[in-house]
Each structure stands twice: as structure tokens, then as C-alpha cells.
Design goal:
heterodimer, A: 128 residues, alpha+beta, 4-stranded antiparallel β-sheet, 7 strands, 32% strand, disordered C terminus, B: 171 residues, mainly alpha, Arp2/3 complex 21 kDa subunit ARPC3, 6 helices
Chain lengths: 128, 171
Amino acid sequence: MNIPWLKTGDKILIATVTVLAAVILIWNILGASPDPDVTAVITQDGRVIKQLDLLNLDEPEYLYLTGTVSQVIVAERGRIRFLESDCPNRTCVNSGWLTRAGDRAVCVPSRVVIKIVGKNPEMDTRAY
Amino acid sequence: MNKGQDAILIILVCNAILISLLESVVPIPMPVPGVKLGLANIITIIAIAHLAFKDVLLIVFIRCLVVAVLTKGITALPFSLAGGLLSAAVMWLCYKYLVDWFSVKGVSIIGAITHNMAQLVVATIILRESVMLFYLPILLVSALVTGFITGLISESALREIDKRGIFAHVA
């Protein structure tokens, strides 16, 4: 074949995207607080429906959400996750445990977002 | 449009739907939840190479509609439509006007990135909360990888179609 395997634009594209992704990733990591005191914020339609201080949980706390999608969120000391959901592709459940400030899990069908913020939420939301 | 192009359109729509369905039935394990290869992109690229712009959009539209009804449900429809149509449009522009710059692999990567960006924007609108920056790195890298793989397959598919003259007697 006389056409080059990768053309100039291809190479520039691949390099640019890789660098861009790395920069944003580093920005996100630096933006996340190293503060071990973590609070989970659960929002639906952009409104906060529950806020949990994850380090002050002595036993697992379950949150049952009903509506068009029923789902169960479980919080334990230091971590939180979507446990069950009857949404179609269960991306939220597959996201697994959230442990660090900046972690988040999203369920689009129910429009629920769980995110973890440090003690000082202002600092963590700066990057978004 | 003549009968030959009608035939190509129908063949491509059927293949796009079948590939999408197969991909959702036979899960290919991915390191990131929610990320998939997007093999139907191969059909979009073949369509771009052989059909008019509005026919390409029609193929993507029908594929998204049928696959949403049969598998993921209506909540997924705005996502696949926004991603599918926008990436088809951007790939069409790149394929037609930037052919000196980008190979089919590059065009496919650009399409995958557009697809993921469109989905992020729709997610931000539906969730009423910006999830852009958090998911951007992961979606950029996965677009790079999946776009490259589907681009590679598309390139050999286009070469074979040309070499064997598969569409030659109908177009």
C-alpha cells in the first residue's frame, strides 16, 4: 500500500489527545482533596437528597430510592456505592465502591449522582 | 437516489443494527464500566465512503432507534442519537475534506471522541450537574483506543469492498 499507515494528522491527533487526557487527569487528582474526612453527597436532578459523613458510620446505612427506577445505595465506614438498581445497563452498580474525595458514580436513568467531597466542599468543586 | 444506492442503504442499516445488537448481547469485557467498542461505527464509515450525507444520517438514526427499542430502552436514545448523528457528521466532514491529513483510523478516532463528548454534554443536561471534567480523561483515552480499533477494521473493510467491487455493480 502506498498510503502511509498513519498520516500526519493522525499522529498529531493521537499525541494531542493523550497529552490532554493526562493533563486533565492530573488536574482532577490535584483538585481532589487528600483530606481523609469524607462526606458523600447524593443528588437527584441536581438537588441534594442526602448527605452522609462516611467516617461517622458505625453500621451500614441503606438508602432506598423509588420512582421510575428503584435502587439501593449502601454506605459503610469510609465508602459508598450503588448496591442494586433496576435501570437497564446498571453502569451505576458496576462503578463499585467510592472511597476518595472526587470519586463519583452516576445513574442517568434515575438522574442520581453520588459524589464524595472532602471536609471543605468548596475546594473539591473548584475543578468542576 | 437510484435503486442501487437504496440497496446499499438497506444492507448497511441491517448490518449496523445486527452489529449493535451482537455487541450488546455478547459483552466484550472493558476496563471501564459503560465503555464499549462501538463496532457499528464501521458501518457508518462505510456509509460515508459510499453514500450521500443524508443517507448516512438516516442509517445512524434508524440504527439508534431500533437498537434503543430492542435493548437499552428509551432513556438511552438521546445519548445514542446525539453521539451517533454528531460523530457521523464530523466524520463525514473529515473524510471528505481532510483526507490529506487523516487516514480512516484518524477519522474514526475523531468520530469516537465526538461521540463521547456529545454523550457527556447530554449527561450534563440530563443530570443537571457537570460531570464533564471527571469523565473527560477516561472518555478521551477510551475514544482513542476504540476509535483506532474500529478505524483499523473500517479501513480493511473499505479496501476489500473496493478491491472486490462489492458495491460497484449497484452504485
